Amino acid sequence: MRVRLEDVARAANVSPKTVSRVLNDEANVTDATRQRVRAAMEAMDYRPHPSARSLAGNRSFLVAMLYDNNDNPASTYLAEIQDGVLEACDAHRYSMMVRPLRMRGGDFIRRFDALISDHHPDGVVLTPPITDYAPLLKRLRESNVPYASVSPQRRGKVIGVTMDEQRAARAIVEHLLGLGHRRIAHVIGIADHGASRWRLAGYREAMAAAGLPEDPAMVVQGAFTFGSGVEAARQLFSLAERPTAVFAANDDMATGVMWAAGEYGLKVPHDLSVCGFDDTPLSRQLWPALTTIQQPSREMGKIAAEQLLGALRGHGAGQLVQVPFVLQIRGSTAAVP
Amino acid sequence: MRVRLEDVARAANVSPKTVSRVLNDEANVTDATRQRVRAAMEAMDYRPHPSARSLAGNRSFLVAMLYDNNDNPASTYLAEIQDGVLEACDAHRYSMMVRPLRMRGGDFIRRFDALISDHHPDGVVLTPPITDYAPLLKRLRESNVPYASVSPQRRGKVIGVTMDEQRAARAIVEHLLGLGHRRIAHVIGIADHGASRWRLAGYREAMAAAGLPEDPAMVVQGAFTFGSGVEAARQLFSLAERPTAVFAANDDMATGVMWAAGEYGLKVPHDLSVCGFDDTPLSRQLWPALTTIQQPSREMGKIAAEQLLGALRGHGAGQLVQVPFVLQIRGSTAAVP
DNA sequence: GGCAGAAATGACAGCGCTGTCAATTTGCTC
DNA sequence: GAGCAAATTGACAGCGCTGTCATTTCTGCC
Description:
CATH topology of the largest domain in chain A: Rossmann fold
Number of domains of chain A: 3
Mean pLDDT of chain A: 92
Radius of gyration of chain A: 25 Å
CATH superfamily of the largest domain in chain A: Response regulator
Low-confidence stretches of chain A: none
CATH class of the largest domain in chain A: Alpha Beta
Helix content of chain A: 40-55%
CATH architecture of the largest domain in chain A: 3-Layer(aba) Sandwich
Order of helices and strands of chain A: HHHHEHEHEHEEHEHEHEHEHEHEE
Structural class of chain A: alpha/beta
Oligomer: homodimer
Largest interface: A-B, 40 and 40 residues
């Protein structure tokens, strides 16, 4: 009923071991043999049994994607990364499992250990903000589990993928400056996330480069949520000297800012320019549509997984790939009145 | 290094097969033996090797969660279901994999077959809208793969979980009626989704029960997105006789309606009551917070998975469980002026 | 053509469990 | 306490692959 490796071997007139070699792209098989075996596999629609491979070969062909489900970033961001990781895993015939890992709460490491001993993933993909949680990284190294990170803060010899968020933030603030804005506010994301730090740094860099002294009142803490954007904006709009533009550290907060602008009777972009970061689907649905930074999350998930898989399969060590951003200029920003 | 079943057997002074029986909760083991074995497992922190179990036992301990990534519903909804499914799988020591399955495009069935022959899931969880895609259901039955559905439209002998969405929709419209509203509009979701149909049916039922004739202008097509809510609302607000309340088929569209209300200078809830459906995190962050129906998505994912797992483990056939909804009355609805 | 060394191929055991079925023990009945 | 059925336990093979190492075949070179 099921086609086994042995059946393919018989059909191709080679030993099972040779079929195994072809299956695993090992060396020391002549092209002629390789092709004969490949043809037989194809003809018989052979599908290796993952458990058998895993048991005999002592590897699981499994990649686990870890995320924090306390402080999780916008779930659409994670969903996109997940999609990308999945795509890469599929292409390499690996399977993927997702693991929420509550960082608060002490049994974090125990749960991680359970993941390893229960499922034996060959490698792990880390997503923000757990890319930089030191105890986890330590444990990963101790257990000798290879991993790749999406947007890690520390850039040591980590493999994975990043975007130059600081430069992107700077670019978007420069866009506002170019429109004549001077009183530009910034709404920060959750404090210890790399994303928040880089975006703030980019804002400061652009302002400083334009020779504008930092006004503390113009920088307000948010928490990456719509609601926190509303709050932050209300704070800004109650100021004697309101900003003429607000750069929020993500689109959800930017949407909140636009919402609050409505409350205060400020028309976007006529009275206030607003921009965000991430280019979530939401940003295009708003009216006016949001000027933002397109971060290719799906692609980033894919790249991180590819770096990991490459390293797993011994194709070099894997790198920290930097992907380009795109400044999406849309209707929510305009020249200062 | 790794603790194997054989080691546990030796420690408990029984045969490996007996340990296996305890591991799998099989019958015909005396309580004394069972406890001795359990104690040994505990003491040695024994973790069965999933691949070995799977290979020998001809089952994968794997549940696949299928979703459509074309027309996907709000990604937060899927993320919550995924979380619930994962929780149930973890509790039963099953693993879970997620599979996007593009319904448009002809190779749908082929991709499904590949999933089965590559990964051999013991069962499958179906999420809207693919709970009712006939070719898939047919193939699932042919391949003899057990499945459970989240909010299926057809209620035959399907197992899984539902919520009485029609009654919930009726309840929310009755809430509006109770506040004195008569011109109540409805924004429909994507046409062929069960969710859209039930919510529309509940709306009609409530209106009819209140003796109000249906006004076609009050029922507008949307597509479950924020943007479609904005569009629909603009259409409603341009009417000579505006609605005093809008019931949108989900929270994203309701948010869009509130947005558009701002554009038209309508204050919510003073000039317009708005309500949604789903109780997404967004709905609490809005100002005013949204009156909506709390649909326990996470819980529903968990229940669907539990029904599936129960059936897989032979604890009866599994049922179609109906979960209760909660009408969350918040600031976005008020008495008609 | 003969030889050493490299490349290609194969034989075989075994990964860690569970299915099957046989052996043993237990609990009952008379 | 013998006799029998039911419950419990165990022996053993084998799930479908891959690691190890032995064997065969090919290469280049004198």
